[in-house]
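Hi V.,

Quick status before I head out on leave. The structure for the redesign project is tokenized and pasted below; the design run finished overnight.
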């Protein structure tokens, strides 16, 4: 008569421990990969947001003095220069005593020192962007004069929910 032999309790416990160690090693190695799969999506969203904000700023006139037919360097008034330094993100809107809103921004300098959190993300028409899609994103805008009366540099930094800073720069000429 053949005896069938099974596993002892000790063999089963050792097998469970070995399987648990293998699963722990595999999941610990895959954990960072899961985070990296989110980064490209966040970078695409940041690029969309940065390009949209840059388009909005570039669509504005160069200067408060500029008109449709006269550049500030050619007109009666002198060109304005944006503030030299800005506080950190989230500071009050620039240009006036705080009564001016983003909808009132009519030139590039108005965007200097602008800090936007996810509740202030509007498109160029002033309509709110879906905050669920940009949850945790912030934007910072700095404008500086690069060439006297001829060009201003626009620097935009989009900060993703993972605190990755993605920078955009553009130059708005006085024409």
């Amino acid at each position: 008569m053949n005896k069938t032999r099974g596993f002892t309790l000790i063999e089963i416990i050792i097998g469970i421990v070995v399987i648990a160690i293998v699963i722990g090693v595999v999941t610990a190695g895959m954990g960072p990969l899961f985070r990296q799969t989110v980064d490209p999506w966040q970078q695409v969203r940041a690029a969309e947001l940065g390009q949209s904000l840059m388009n909005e700023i570039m669509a504005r006139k160069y200067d408060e003095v500029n008109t449709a037919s006269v550049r500030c360097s050619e007109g009666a008034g002198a060109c304005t220069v944006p503030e030299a330094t800005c506080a950190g993100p989230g500071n009050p809107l620039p240009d006036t005593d705080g009564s001016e809103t983003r909808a009132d921004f009519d030139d590039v300098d108005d965007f200097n020192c602008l800090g936007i959190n996810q509740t202030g993300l509007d498109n160029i028409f002033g309509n709110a962007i879906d905050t669920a899609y940009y949850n945790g994103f912030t934007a910072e805008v700095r404008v500086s004069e690069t060439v006297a009366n001829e060009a201003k540099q626009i620097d935009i930094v989009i900060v993703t929910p993972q605190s990755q800073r993605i920078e955009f720069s553009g130059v708005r000429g006085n024409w």
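Above is the designed sequence. The longest helix spans residues 9-58.

G. will cover questions while I'm gone.

Best,
W.
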